[in-house]
Protein: Disease resistance protein winged helix domain-containing protein
Amino acid sequence: MTTRKPSVAKRRGTAEPIKLGALEKDDFWLLFKAHAFGDENYEEQESLSGIGQKIAHKLKGNPLATQTAGALLIEHLTVEHWTNSLKNEDWKSLHLSSGIMSSLKFCYDELPFHLQQCFSYCSIFPYGYQFPAEELVCMWISHGFVKLDDSSASLKDTGWYYLTDLVNLGFFEQVISSVRQTSYSISGLMHEFARVVSRTECATIDGIYCNEILPTVHHLSILTDSIYSMDDQMSNIPCSRKFEAKLRSSFTSVKKLRSLVLIGQYDSFFFKAFQEVFQKEHHLRVLHLSATSADFHSFLCSRVNHRHLQYLKLQDSHVELGSSPQVSSKFFNRVLDGWLTSLQTIHLENCGECWIVPSLKRLPSLTRLFLRNMRKVREVSFPSLEELVLVEMSELESCVCTSLGDMNSSLRVLDIRNCHALKMFDLLEKHHSFKMKKGSWLPNLRKFIVYDCPHLEVVIPLRPSATFSELLISRVSTSLTIDKFYMETFEIRPNSLLGESFGEMRLDEKILAFHNLRDLKCLEISFCRNLTSIPLISFHQLVSLESLTIVGCTKLFSSDVVSAHTHEDMIAADYIALPCLESLSIFSCGITGKWLSLMLRHAPAVKKLMLNGCPKLTQLRIEEEENGQSNLNPASEASSSGYQNGLSASSDPDGLWCIPSNLTTSLKTITIERCPHLIFDVARFTSLEELQILGGCPKMLSSLVHRRLLLPQSLEQIAIYEECKSLTALHGMESLRTLRALALYSNSSLELLELKPLTLLEDLEIVHCTSLVPLEGLRSLVNLRHFKVVGSLTGFGESCDGTIFPRLESLTIDMLSRLTTPFCKGLTCLQQLKLYDLKEARLTDEQEKALLQVPAGSPFSQL
Structure:
């Protein structure tokens, strides 16, 4: 099915939706000619073909738009008719009974009025313009488009809901413009449609091209890039003079502007025309300037009424030294004189060296401050804000808030990146944060990014709030990096600036506020090589944690001695520190058997256990229920090593680890890799569905072979990636009647594999098992769907006819000679063929013929 609404595709689809973009230029021209010329061969007429190319360019690769335009053009195949269509853009008419615009109009009419306002307003920006979400929402709020409902959501949150609705309905699309920066744009002819439906409220002067501007227009954009590029290309035609005349003639009727957007280059001709037509009674709420100059700032200071201005953005505004050195100061002196009392948002970006950012405390309505690449700015002073964004402020040294208490409660977004000279921010300093009660530090903060500020000491921000949607603290003067890019995931890494220079540390409440992470579901601690312990009392705060991954923490839980505070933590934690944990993965760690035992006792719901690179673990012992409770004795009964009864270090080997008996009936997946001394009885895990031995576990596999592969009957998947010289035959397969997937890798000694009992097997992989003879019981694998055979079973397929594997869908082979065997010729359900690690340079004629002569009924024959 097809749909214009991404939300419908996501809800109804059984797979990831495929986004259909614009047609490529050459393909689109072929489609255009079919609709515009019909059966007539008019494309050879250079005049019509040239006009057609221009019309096709305006249709932006949209097939439905081509159908609409073609139906209009084919009525009269004359230069005059096509030229008028190009000029008037007749295909954009909303009065057509069918076509692209009527289809979009139907969707637009279904929108509630507030979403219609938000969408149509954006038509004043040029095609392809990328809106940062915060910018877009702030402009909507400035014009009163965002209305609060009965919920407790703020205006900003409600604006985000509006944007999400417009994305889900297909009117906007997400654009990933940079790391951690998502922008939005109106794509294709949707932008043209927005201009059509908004013509009474919004207008655009794009160079010398401009439709009629109605007196009712409140929102205006002026784009000049095409003017100056045309002057560069055609120096004999003074396009800027034509633009001046167009501006005078079209702009005089506009009396009540609320938005003014200027994008492009501006010179004296523009200023002269603009000053003549711009009236003081304009009560601007949004002023967006890009690539402006000192003269224009001077004009704005003297002629524009700023009392109603709520959103100000100045971008790429350069003031050359020696020309007008006081312009920026003059502009912001008006700020300090109270002219901008309604201003809510200030956005300054890539402005010149003479820009001065004074104290902004006299702006009572200011809630959002965005500064980027403001050279020579060394200090910023501001009132209480909801959002503060500082990016690439190369010489900024200090940030001062004039009302710390108010800002602590109001701040929702704090984003500081690449401020290499920043040393002081009073909101983040200890003396301020310690005045706050526990849990009250920045209680409403949603987005917190402090990145690549090497001189800024951030201590308290390591105590995250449960309301965070995004958190990153990296390359600052702290010992750890914390990254929480999604709501329910959290990653802790060492600081890339400090490396391993800091000493041993204990991850507790003094560093990380575990009590604020009650909604956390996934936690990963990566390569913190100096991290030695995490108190169980801290883990106890993670009541929703489902997945815990520890990677490369070589000192964590590596001591055989469990200290007294661990038992205090156990008691305080009511004996269950990780009640919801389902997946525990430990990679490249020095964890001892005693610590692993302790963790598993406090994780009664674990279903998946992965141990990779844990050399200290040896034998596993199943702990009976009556002994399993012995660790609940008070700490005073503990042995000198910190373990009681079943965990006593005095009688047990150092590498022994114990598992409560209840886990033997709940564990579903066990994965073991690079644990050279580990051995345990897999058959005791009666609910085990997946077992993987992925190399570096020689004792584990040897013990299984010695027991004649004694495995639980519940197994559905087995993967063995391990060389074992004593493994010449796999016995005991007759009990695995539920097995659905079997993978055997790098077993050069394996000679015999009995498959006859495995009638439910669906996936079979045999790789580099060089001694394995052709398999027994292949005809029993009537449900096999995926088969991979590489470096194994030489001669396989020659003695097999095409009736085996009647349901095989995917085949992976490494020898082209297998293509000519009777086995391959009978695979009527094959959909995917993978040729792996081929030694042959090319197909022989016989092999190519075999590949092309796939049975007619096979789906593979159509690929």
Summary: The mean pLDDT is 78.
